[in-house]
Amino acid sequence: MWDMVKLGDVCTLLTDGTHYTPPDLGYGIPFLTVKDVSDDGLDFYNCSKISIEEYQKADIGNSAPKLGDVLFSKDGTVGKVYVVKENIEFAVLSSLAILRPNKELDSSYLGYVLKSPIVILQASKNKTGSALRRIILNDIKKIKIPLPPLAEQKRIATILDKADAIRRKRQQAIKLADDFLRAVFLDMFGDPVTNPKGWEKLSIGELCTIVRGSSPRPKEDPRFYGGLVPRLMVADLTRDGKLVTPKIDYLTEEGAKKSRFVQAGTVVMAVSGNVGLTSILAIDACIHDGFIAFNKLNSNRVKPEFLQETLMLMKTTHVSRQAGAIFQNLTTTQIKEMKIPLPPIELQNKYLILVKKFTEIPIKLSVDELFNSLSQRAFSGKL
């Protein structure tokens, strides 16, 4: 087994961004915060822009990352990671930590290990607040990571790069499938808000029973959290699209009793966070109070796949109209009263066949599980 070393001992620089927000000029040097960092890269287009003078101040204060540095979000959403590949001038706010590896530590390897459970578990022990929303620099410096020889680090990073590329292709496949199915839906059924085909309309409350999720209290109590029962999170929906498999958060059996258990095949909708985001559960899971579930659907009148796409179109296509505005402040009563078009069930079944065909494609890849397995094996020296 490899030595476990503190991050502070293998980085020539471990600091954070500026502790003040420079004026946004709308032009100039990019200035990034947590919201400008994602798995897809750094958002230099929509971020703030600062003057050269402000950038120089940040640079002198080591708040301007360089090529090969690793960014780690420590405020807001803790644990976002990005290895800087852009050789351009930019600065960051203090919500982002800047790690500059020494010659014994490969940047790409560090990026992957920072995303691993090895680091996440240590970070969660040093969190402040009821959820993992902030970690201080001194605690980041104390986090221990496995340090194999440099050549082995590069080998691990290369393997995980390839696995990550496959994972991204899966995400692209999901998006393409969703886009195609949306086009088919509109062609078959028309716009669910304007209802150009004149289908009969019924309120959602006439078609199913709507139930709200619940959450065990207090939050983070080990009696309730950290078990084997999956609990749905909004990030699961944004990752998976139409058919969601919760993989982020888990409850104990005792915690599940204090939550809302929902069966596979049920339509679920976020009513906080990304309000109106809708999917279908691929497995049995619990939902917290930021979700509702559409139970006991009248299968003779409406199919889950039809309801899911109808609600998503009402959210995304008509956000500026009255129907879309509903999604800004959803209540259970409002949802029950919403009326949706109901095409013949035979036509819905034809759409259902297409949905199953296209949603099975990304599921069969199962690359998220592959990547997680490879990561665990890599950092335990078994790859």
From TrEMBL:
Keyword Secreted assigned: no
Domain Type I restriction modification DNA specificity: 2-175, 196-360
One Pfam family it belongs to: Methylase_S
Keywords of the record: DNA-binding, Endonuclease, Hydrolase, Nuclease, Restriction system
SUPFAM superfamilies documented for this protein: DNA methylase specificity domain (SSF116734)
A molecular-function term among this protein's GO annotations: DNA binding
GO biological process: DNA restriction-modification system
Similarity remark: Belongs to the type-I restriction system S methylase family.
Protein name: Restriction endonuclease S subunit
